Amino acid sequence: MCLFGLVIIGKALTIQIVEGAELKKKVESLTLVDKSIEAVRGNIYASDGSLLATSIPIYEIRMDLNTEALTDEIFNAGIDSLSYQLSHLFKDRSPSSWKQELVRARAKGARYHLIKRNVRYTELKQMKTFAIMRRGRYKGGFLTIQKNKRELPFQVLAARTIGYEKDGVTPVGLEGAYSKELSGINGQRLMQKIAGGVWMPVGDENETEPLDGYDVYSTIDINIQDVAESALLKQLVKQQADHGCVVLMEVQTGNIKAIANLKRNANGNYYEGYNYAIGESTEPGSTFKLPALIAAIEDGYVDLDDIVDCGNGKLNLYDRTMYDSNYDEGGWGKISVKRVFEVSSNIGMAKIIRGAYSKNPQKFVDHLKSMSLAEPLGISIAGEGSPNIKNTDNNSWSGITLEWMAHGYEVLQTPLQILTYYNAVANNGKMVRPKFADKITKGRSIVREIETQVINPAICSKSTIDKVKQALEGVIENGTARNLGNANYKIAGKTGTAQIANESYGYKYESKVSHQASFVGYFPAEDPKYSCIVVVNAPSRNVYYGNLVAGPIFKEVADKVYANSLEIHKPLGPQKFLAASAIPYSKSGYGEDVKRVFQTMGVEMKTAAANPEWVTTSTQEKSVTLESRKVIENLVPNVKGMGVMDAVYLLENAGLKVRFVGRGAVKSQSIQAGTRAHKGSVIVLELT
């Protein structure tokens, strides 16, 4: 027994004297660790300073119920008040329940007892006034651990573009693109591991304060973004489409002012689940006819006035047949190159490219690549889809590839890549990289401004740009997108309707074909400031043409931008004023109303007919002449010079649907007076 006791004493002395210092150091390394203090992530703002994403501080509250300064006297004097205050604030437990918990924790010697997680800042401010807790960390044992929760004040608005960055998840959107700037630098705090595996901070003097992240000002205009998402959602619901996207870009800077992406879920609701504008590479269809036409014109093979024989709307190519949209009406026959583009003739475009490049198809491919269509844009946001312009040595190249490429098949482009190309045309040939952020700031100081980058200084010559601009304007004036024309500003652009290919079953599934409708263009056409693309995928209401599905979304966004951008309005020219006259000017209209007004004012009237129902007024120096205006049943009436109310009354009685732009008297009408009125036809009135 004595020998056994001596062994124990010897071992204890060895541990204490020989190994003591090393073991003590090892224990400290296991129980004392520097842990990271999360820096507050920077904010993301819209272009006007509206907050798009911010970090909201969330607190975890604990108590050191065994701190030396917290005596039994102080604890017992304040425990009832503290229990009542906690119960009143959180409303989840009774005061007696809180008291029992705190008394029990103190009896166990708890140094890091959890009070509440996910406490808001306003709640924290109240807790700092509570009994015992108001004594602070060392005298009252009040401990706070701050965590940050990311919030989007506008919720789903531009959510996918704002994005997120999470551990173990691929960064998305602006949060991922500018993560380094937004993240800041974390601080450090010495923490000790205590009973139960809980880490408790050890003194403020051991802390290194974190440096908060920088703020990012995006290019997004929140008002236009709202209109874009609303217009897209409305059309997707109307057409019961699978998904769609809208992008609006500033022509000269490449600033993305709005980008909306919506997808339908299993319940039929739409949400921002994927950034289709950036990530989805598809066959673009007829919007690709622009680079094909530019290549042919630039290489000297065709001009806008050249004639192309589009035949009867069908073209057999080996085992495939190409169709024009009006093949059931006999096709387009012989038309100019400009007209081929305006009416979006697949056959016309195929014949242009075949005639130019059939002997050397690689020249066509090389020209497309020289216009920066084969490489990604290299945008700041991750997830860009890869374009594909295949070479002639590709295994999938066939005898009909050239003709199919001419109208947007057997090539791949994302919506943003197509938009960037059209934006280059609007920008007189200069292709700029789409930009999602303008500047990085720290408080009011600018850390870094994000400059516009040029991808290609000139995709083609200025003369070719001028020619295709005429063709793009012709699409709206005389072509497939006449429904987008308006009297306030001119639009230039191109419709696109493509069949969607699937890797498993090609273009058809159960005898059904799915389509992608698109429209891309810029405005105002004479001095472009903005470009925009709309793509709607798989509309299912048997309406799939770009002008009808994508066009209305483009128009709604463009109208909003035009209405709110005074700098793109046409300047007012010299104004003409009528010579001073004692007789007031009168619009034409309903005879009895006109006569009653002039009689009340004591104005002399001259009229050939006794009681004309509808009159045209003519003002002289001392009198007004009323001439009878005939309105014949089943014919479109002449409403020029009338006010809106009278004009609408007459036209709707004739069975027409009336739309009007401007204000004042009717200046012109889209259906000529005297022609037969077809019920349900739309007539557009332009007012002065």
TrEMBL record:
It holds the Pfam family Transpeptidase. PANTHER family: PEPTIDOGLYCAN D,D-TRANSPEPTIDASE, PEPTIDOGLYCAN D,D-TRANSPEPTIDASE FTSI. Residues 630-688 form the PASTA domain. It is found in: Membrane. InterPro entries: Beta-lactam/transpept (IPR050515), Beta-lactam/transpept-like (IPR012338), PASTA_dom (IPR005543), PBP_dimer (IPR005311), PBP_dimer_sf (IPR036138), PCN-bd_Tpept (IPR001460). Its main location: membrane. GO terms for cellular component: plasma membrane. GO terms for molecular function: carboxypeptidase activity; penicillin binding. Keywords: Carboxypeptidase, Hydrolase, Membrane, Protease. This is PASTA domain-containing protein. It comes from Acidiluteibacter ferrifornacis. GO terms for biological process: cell wall organization.
